[in-house]
Each structure stands twice: as C-alpha cells, then as structure tokens.
C-alpha cells in the first residue's frame, strides 16, 4: 500500500469533512519508511502533505525524478515543495494543476498561480488528464476552466491574471456537451448531489463574484435545460468589471486576558449613539460604491476562529507592574482547539502570551534578561503545537502587552526597540518552518498616562520603526513565508488607520516594508467590540461597527482604505454577551467581512481558553465526557458565519 492509499483509507474523514487532508507527523513518516518495501522519498506525492519544516529532512537524496506533480499539492502544499517537484522533473502538462492552484486558500495563491502560468500551464483547459476518478468526483473543477474556479471563489486577482494571459471568458468546447459533476465542495452543502452541468459556453454567465459556490450551484445546476437554451453569444456580464478592476496586490493575496474577573480591552471613551441593525445591515453597506482601484469581493473568509486566552493573564493593568505569573492549562486549551476544528470546522486561533511570561520575569523591574525561558516556553509551545497539530490553517502568536512592559512604552521609555525585535527573532527562530504560524506583533497599543515622562503618548513614527525592526528580525530568522500582523494605535480600532484619524497609524504602518518582498504578508490588525464604546467593557451590544464605530469610521471606510492601497486586515478581537441582541450585531459584522474578502482575511473572536462561564464575554466551550457545548454566540455567529450561513 503506498503512502497516498494509506493516507486516504486511514486518515481522511470523508463523512465529516470530505476535503480535509491529513498531514503526517515526521515520526510516522520514518516508521512507514522502515516498514514499507519501497523508499518513501521515491514517491513525490507524499510531499503535498508535509509540513514545511519537514521538507529538508525527507528531501530525496540522491534526487528522485517525477513526471507528475500532485494536483492536491498545488492547492495545499507549500510553494517551496511545489517548486521542488518541478525541479525534479514534474510536468506542467500532466494533471489539472492550474485548476487546483486557482482555488488555493493560502496567502500565496496568486504567487503560485503566476508561477504555473509562467511555466506554461494550459489556461483554458477543461478536460481531465489523469486517472484519479475519486478526485474527479470530489472536485468539479475539470468541467470548467481555472478562470471559472477562481471566479466562483471570488478571487478577482486570479481572474484578472488569467484574463490578462489569454483566458477565454466564454470557452467553447464540443457543442452542447453535458457532463455529470458531484458538487460536494460547496461549503453549505451537506449532501452529495449529482447535477447536470450546462455546456461551458453558457456556464460563465452563472457566476457572480459576491455569491460564492452556493449561488453558483443554484443558478447553474438546478435547471440545466433552461440554461442550455440560453444564448451562447461571446459576451460576459462581468467583462466590463474586469476591464476596470485591478488586483489588490502586485505580489500575492493572503489568503489567524487577567483573571477571569477582569474584562477585555478597557478603552476609555464616551458613549455613542446606538447603531440600528436595520440601518447598517451588511447587505446594504456592501453594495456601496467602492474605490476606483477595485470592487468589493465576497465569498468565504479564509480564516475563522476564536482567541484562546490564558498565557497573557496578569497584563490587563497596562499601567501596573506584573508580579504574578498566570495559571496555565495548555492541555485543556488544546482540547478546546481540537473541538473547534473537528466539530465546528473553525480554522484560526489567536494565542495571547505576555512578554513577562516568555522571559519569566515577574519582579516588576525593567527587563534583566531578554532570553526566552525554556520551561515557560515549553508550556506555551504546547498550545502552539496543539494548534498546528489540530489541522488549523492559522495559529497567531499574539504578544499581549499593549505596547508596554510594566507600564513603560516599548521603544520609548520602556524596553528598547532592539529588545522587542530580539524577542520576536527568538520566537521566529522556533517557528521558522511552520508556515501556518502568524506573528501578531503587539496587542492594542494605545495612549495612557501610566506616569510616563511624555504623558503615556505613543509616538506613531517611533512605534512604526519599532515594528519594522521586529519584521526584519522575523525574516532574518528564516521565517519568510508567514503572515505578520501589524497593530496601530488607538486600541487598533478600524478608524485608527484612516487618513482622517489623528493617530496617524495608517500612513505610518503603510511605510513598513517586508524583507521577504511585497506587502501582502503584512496584515493590519483590527479590534472592534459591539458595545457603546467598542471596548468590550460595557458588554451589551449596540452596533455592528460597519458604518461607524464609536462615532468614527467603521469597517466600511476601512475596507475602502485598504482596497485603495492594496492591503489586507484581519479582525482579531470582537465579541459580546451570549444573547440574541449581540448575536444580531456580531453576525452582521462578520457578514460584512465575508462580503469584502478582497481586503479582510477573517476573524478570531474573544474569547475561549482560560475564561470560565462567569466572564461576560466568554466563548469557552463546556465539556461533558466526550461532548462539547459551545456558547450561544459561538454557535449562532462565530461558526455559522465562517460557514457562510450568517
């Protein structure tokens, strides 16, 4: 039995999740190497499942040759692995590589598609060219072109690239051709249903950039006879859109608190007027006129999940000194992640940790040694590794210090920018081989007196320079493929990035560069709670933050700003009480993100992990034997919105 057969038979859970691919552990690979009659390194398909850090260990030596690159690999393997397969004889003309790459749900999707196009991948291919019948049935991509697959996923940047390289908007294969297709790749479908597909000459008329796969199936496959009778003229309803839209990025498109009695992110602000759910609904807001540089694109968000709080407990008094290390329970918190992944199908988890915890300094003094403590880090790594081993798509390491260490501002009167960068360099060294780790540089920088000599005001230019040093240190450590999350001032509210904001965070952070190239992996962080001052401290919900957030620009204005600058953001904290009112507003907020996936990558809400049921904003599931029960807000919004069911 070869590796793929063993993989498919024993590890792919087809009933629960038919397109979730199993990633083997290195030790398991070694065991298979020793027990099976062939050499593992001779079978190139297995590389599609390897973690990036394992590639060098299992690289063929001497190099074996292969003539077919694994198709699934172009959708899920790291870019380095894909290039390695071609370097050892892989053919661009065998298999439907471009189809799978066009639907790739990883930050380097556009980069991989560009690479395949430049190698000569057939852009207008609609025929299957391999004998993996089961894969044919799982993915209907072979009955359409890569352009159609990219359009149905809302990947406008890939659509434009393919059109610019000769993709036919209305392909015309054999006349009146009808094919069978099994559409189990539709996110909202729970049944395997067979549909008659209309001939490709009319197929493209069915696509809508904001509707996603469900609209595609309903419009194109429910009434094939009517569709087949439609005009086959070589015109497209989206052709004019393509002629004016531009890609959000010139390089790639990314595609993841104190004791329980303390509330999150206390932002001292006055109360704003309530925003009506009806007056600021995502549907009405999403239809607004967008920036001339691009158009809003809807579809499934790349990342959806929750925070797993606990390792940062003790840092919430941002002016105080911290002398009490938190009680941590990584075993339980990893079990929560496994529940969220396996039962709820969430895929992104933010993992807050305090600087004090990482270096094990709780004497209230300035930093004595910035070296990461081995024992403490081993505990935290249980959480990070548990997140990675769960199959999550994104595990965010969040330094939860509010731009301070014991009340002093980092890069000003507190730890130096060099110390901050050094800490991140140490962290990045440990996770350089893990492409699903993201580096969330700092939680909620903000102005606060704290008896600082300058009144506690963060100098945004100094802060941007501090972040730049950290970015440089991360890349220098070899972590070149990971997302880096940048946080502006003002508790990282949406408005802090807008040109109208006095914080100046947007222009300052726009100037940060990535030594790895481009800016598509430098992501802006946003926190917006749903209460009267967007802090999470007043708990009950009055706004969806779309039109305005605390009387200032909300997600709508931020989306336009990001779009006009070709940048991306992620909502990494939001939440409210577990009641119907908060569910209404949170679902509206997350729906707006899903209607603007060209600029928003996803969300992690606040918070599960170490919080118990007495915490007002708890999203911690409860366990009874082998059964987990989610809070009502997680069930009604966090999970459903990621599935496209808000």
From TrEMBL:
Residues 239-297 have a biased composition (Low complexity). Residues 320-608 form the Glycoside hydrolase family domain. It catalyses: Endohydrolysis of (1->4)-beta-D-glucosidic linkages in cellulose, lichenin and cereal beta-D-glucans. Pfam families: Ank_2, Cellulase. It is an enzyme of class 3 (hydrolase). ANK repeats lie at residues 145-169. Keywords: ANK repeat, Glycosidase, Hydrolase. InterPro entries: Ankyrin_rpt, Ankyrin_rpt-contain_sf, GH, Glyco_hydro_5, Glyco_hydro_5_CS. One of its GO terms (biological process) is glucan catabolic process. It comes from the Eukaryota. Its EC number is 3.2.1.4. Signal peptide: none annotated. One of its GO terms (molecular function) is cellulase activity. Residues 239-298 are annotated as: Disordered. Has endoglucanase activity on substrates containing beta-1,4 glycosidic bonds, like in carboxymethylcellulose (CMC), hydroxyethylcellulose (HEC) and beta-glucan. Involved in the degradation of complex natural cellulosic substrates. Belongs to the glycosyl hydrolase 5 (cellulase A) family. This is cellulase.
């Amino acid at each position: 039995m070869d590796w793929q057969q063993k993989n498919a038979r024993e590890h792919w859970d087809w009933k629960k999740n038919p397109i979730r691919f199993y990633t083997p552990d290195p030790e398991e690979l070694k065991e298979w190497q020793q027990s099976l009659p062939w050499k593992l390194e001779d079978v190139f398909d297995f590389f599609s499942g390897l973690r990036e850090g394992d590639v060098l260990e299992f690289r063929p030596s001497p190099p074996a040759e292969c003539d077919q690159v694994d198709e699934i690999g172009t959708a899920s393997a790291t870019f380095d692995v894909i290039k390695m397969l071609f370097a050892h004889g892989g053919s661009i003309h065998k298999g439907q590589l471009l189809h799978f790459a066009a639907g790739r749900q990883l930050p380097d999707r556009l980069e991989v598609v560009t690479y395949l196009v430049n190698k000569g991948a057939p852009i207008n291919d609609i025929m299957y060219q391999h004998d993996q019948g089961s894969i044919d049935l799982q993915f209907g991509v072979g009955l359409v072109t890569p352009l159609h697959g990219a359009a149905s996923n809302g990947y406008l940047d890939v659509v434009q690239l393919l059109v610019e390289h000769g993709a036919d908007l209305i392909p015309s294969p054999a006349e009146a051709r009808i094919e069978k297709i099994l559409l189990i790749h539709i996110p909202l479908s729970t049944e395997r249903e067979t549909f008659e597909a209309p001939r490709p000459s009319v197929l493209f008329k069915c696509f809508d950039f904001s509707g996603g796969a469900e609209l595609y199936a309903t419009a194109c496959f429910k009434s094939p006879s009517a569709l087949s009778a439609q005009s086959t003229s070589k015109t497209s309803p989206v052709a004019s859109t393509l002629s004016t839209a531009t890609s959000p990025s010139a390089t790639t498109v990314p595609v993841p608190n104190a004791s329980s009695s303390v509330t999150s992110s206390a932002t001292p602000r006055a109360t704003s007027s309530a925003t009506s759910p009806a007056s600021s609904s995502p549907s009405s807001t999403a239809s607004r006129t967008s920036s001339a540089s691009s158009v809003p694109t809807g579809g499934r968000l790349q990342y959806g999940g929750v925070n797993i709080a606990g390792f940062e407990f003790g840092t919430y008094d941002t002016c105080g000194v911290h002398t009490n290390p938190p009680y941590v329970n990584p075993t339980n918190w990893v079990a929560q992640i496994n529940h969220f992944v396996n039962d709820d199908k969430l895929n992104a988890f933010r993992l807050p940790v305090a600087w004090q915890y990482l270096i094990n300094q709780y004497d209230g003094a300035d930093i004595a040694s910035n070296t990461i403590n081995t024992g403490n880090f081993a505990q935290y790594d249980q959480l990070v590794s548990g997140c990675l081993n769960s199959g999550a798509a994104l595990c965010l390491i969040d330094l939860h210090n509010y731009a301070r260490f014991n009340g002093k501002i980092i890069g000003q009167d507190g730890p130096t920018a060099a110390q901050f960068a050094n800490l991140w360099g140490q962290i990045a060294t440990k996770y350089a081989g893990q492409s699903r780790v993201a580096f969330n540089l700092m939680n909620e920088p903000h102005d606060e007196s704290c008896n600082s000599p300058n009144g506690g005001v963060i100098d945004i230019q100094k802060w941007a320079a501090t972040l730049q040093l950290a970015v440089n240190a991360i890349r220098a450590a070899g972590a070149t493929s990971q997302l880096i999350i940048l946080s502006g001032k003002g508790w990282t509210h949406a408005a802090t990035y807008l040109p109208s904001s006095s914080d100046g965070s947007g222009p300052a952070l726009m100037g940060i560069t990535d030594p790895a190239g481009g800016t598509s992996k430098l992501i802006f962080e946003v926190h917006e709670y749903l209460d009267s001052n967007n802090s999470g401290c007043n708990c009950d919900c009055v706004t969806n933050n779309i039109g305005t957030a605390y009387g200032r620009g909300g997600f709508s204005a931020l989306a336009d700003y990001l779009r006009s600058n070709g940048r991306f953001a992620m909502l990494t904290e939001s939440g409210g009480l577990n009641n119907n009112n908060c569910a209404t507003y949170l679902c509206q907020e997350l729906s707006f993100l899903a209607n603007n996936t060209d600029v928003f990558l996803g969300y992690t809400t606040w918070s599960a992990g170490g919080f118990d049921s007495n915490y007002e904003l708890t999203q911690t599931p409860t366990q009874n034997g082998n059964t987990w029960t989610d809070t009502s807000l997680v069930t009604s919004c966090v999970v459903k919105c990621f599935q496209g069911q808000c």
